What does this fold into?
Amino acid sequence: MGNPNVGKSVVFSRLTGANVIASNYPGTTVDYAKGKMRIADEVVEIIDAPGTYSLEPTNKAEEVASDMLNEADIIINVVDATNLERNLYLTLQLLERHIPMVIALNLSDEACHLGITVDSQKLQTILDIPVTNTCALTGEGIKALVDSLANAQVNEDVKQTSREGRWIEIGSIIEKVEQIQHRHHTFRDRFEDMTIRPSTGIPLAVGIIVLAFWFVRMIGELLISYLFDPLFEILYKPLIEQLSSALGPGFIHILLIGEYGSEILFDQSLGMLTTGLYVPLAMVLPYIIAFYFILSILEDTGYMPRLATLVDNLFHKLGMHGHGIIPLFLGLGCNVPGALSTRTLETRKQRFISATLLAIAVPCMAQTAMVFGVLGPYGVFYLGLVFLVLSILYIFMGLLLNKFVKGSSPEIFMEVPPYRRPSFQAILKKTWMRIRWFIREAIPFLFLGVLIINILYYIGILQLIGVVLSPFMEVLFGLPGEASTSLVIGFLRKDLAVGMLIPLGMTPLQLVIAVTMLTIYFPCVATFSVLLRELGIKDMIRSTLIMISVAVTVGFLLRLVFFGLPV
Amino acid sequence: MNSQTTSLANLPIRTNARIIEIQGGHGIQQKLEVMGIRVGKRITLISKQPFRGPLTIKVCNTLMTIGRGMAQRIIVEVVS
It folds into this structure.
C-alpha cells in the first residue's frame, strides 16, 4: 500500500519478479497485480494495491485499495521519503486498522538530493513497527525489507482519530525525524519548470513528440529490414512454396496461400498463411514494438503528466481533460490498448467521447502503415491531407460531442511526479505487456478476418455486395464501384481493405477519400469487441452510428471539395 | 480581503504564498487535504496554462496540476 508515484510497483516487481507495470499516470494499477514470493520456506501471495492518498476513497482505484485491506495478513506500506508528511497520513490510517505492518522508506536517495534527511531509526521507534530504507530502482534495501516482514507488528497504541488529530500527530513526528537543508536550484528543477510553462513547454512538447515518432519510425524500419523481412523471405518462403506445390490448385490453396500458380507475394497474395501472417507480424508488429518502447520511456520518466497539463485546456473543450491524451497516444500504436485505457477517465461522458474519437479519428499503426503504402508514392501532400482531415475531425467531433453528450467532465487534478531515471527492466516489462495485448487480442481477429474474407470471396458474396453498393460509391463519394468491396472488407480487416484499393487504378484524390473513410467508419473487430466491453451495448450502438454517419458525411464532403457536385 | 489575500487563480507566477482558506464542501476539502493542500501550507505557483487552463503548483516538494475552478476556491496570502 502507498500513495501513487512512490515506487510501489517497482518494490513489488523487486519482491516478486512478476509482470507488472510501473507507471507515472494515475490509474495504471487499477487492475491490481498479484504475485507470489518466497519467505524462508513459505510461499506467500503479495498484492500490489492501487495507489491511494487515504482510506477515505475518492475514486474507484482507491476504493479497491481500501477493500483489499480486509484480506491482508501483513501490510507493506511504501512511503516516499521526499514527501513524508503527505505519505504519513495514509500510514497513520493504516496503523489504526491494527494489521501487522512494515514500512519501506523508498526514494531515500532522491530525498537526499533534495536536501531532505529522514531518520528511519527514529521513525521506527516512534511508530513502533519496522522501517527499512529502500531504493527500489537499484534494489537496495529490498532484502532487508523482506527480512523485516518477520517482525511485522501492530502498534496497539494507535487509536482511531479525526483528520485534525492525524495532522497534529504527523506534525510532531515530522519535527522529530525530518531535517531539511536549503539547497540551490538544480538543472533538473529548471528543466521541470521549462517543460510545464506554456511558453517553453509547448515548443518542447512538439519537439519531443516529433523526435519520439522519428525514433519509432527508425526502430520500426530497422526491425523490418534486418529481422522480420529476412525471417519471412529466407526461412518462411521456401516452406510456403513447398506447401503450395504439395496442395495443388483448389479452395484450400486459395484459403491458405492465395491464387495458385502466381508468384507468392506476402503483402498481396491474401492467403491466411501468407498475407494473413505477414501483415500483422512483419509490417505492423515491428512498429508496435518500437512505439510502445518509446511511449513507455516517456511515461516512466514522468513526462506524460506534464504533457497532460499542457494539453488539458484543449482536451477540456473536447469534453475530456488532459488525461485524454493517453488513449489517443496508446491508440496510435494499436487501438486495443487505447480503448482499454479510456477507463482511466473518471466519468461516462469522458469515456464515451474518448472512445468514439479514438475509433473515428485515430489510425493505429496498421492503418498508418497502409496509408503510407497506398499514398506514399504520390507524395507527402496526399498523406498530409489524410492526417489533416483526421485531426480536424478529432477536434470538431470532440467539440460537438462535448455539447451533446450528457454528463459532467470534471477538472484535472493530479500529481506531477518529478523526472526520474526510468528502470530499464520496468520499461521492457511494460512494452512486453502491451505487445502481448496486441498479439493476444488483435492478431487472432486479424487471422480470422482473412479466413472470413477468403470464404466470402470464394462463395461470391463479396462481389454481390460490391455490385449492390457500387452506384452509391460513384454518386456519393466519386469512387469506382469496385471500391465498395474494399469498404465492406474494411469491417473485418482495415489493412487489407486499404491494400485492395491499389489495383483499382484510382487517382490520388480518390484514394484520399477512400482511405479516410476506411479509417473513420468502423474500428477493427478487435477494438470493437474491447469497446463493447468498456462502453456497454447501448453506448456502443450510439458510438457506431456516429462513426458510420461521420464516415459517410466526410466522404461526401471531401468529394464535394475535390470534384464538385455529382452529376 | 486585503491586498495580500487573493485566490490561488489570481496569484502571479513564481510567487510564494500560504493557504489561509479552502472554500467548498467536505469532499473537496478532504480531496485536497490528503494531497497536501491544506490551510497553513506554503504553496508556490509554478505555471498557468493560457486561456483559463490549469495551474501547476508546488506544495511540499510535489508538483500538482489543478483546474482553474478549484484554484479559485483556494484563498492564499502572499508571503515574501
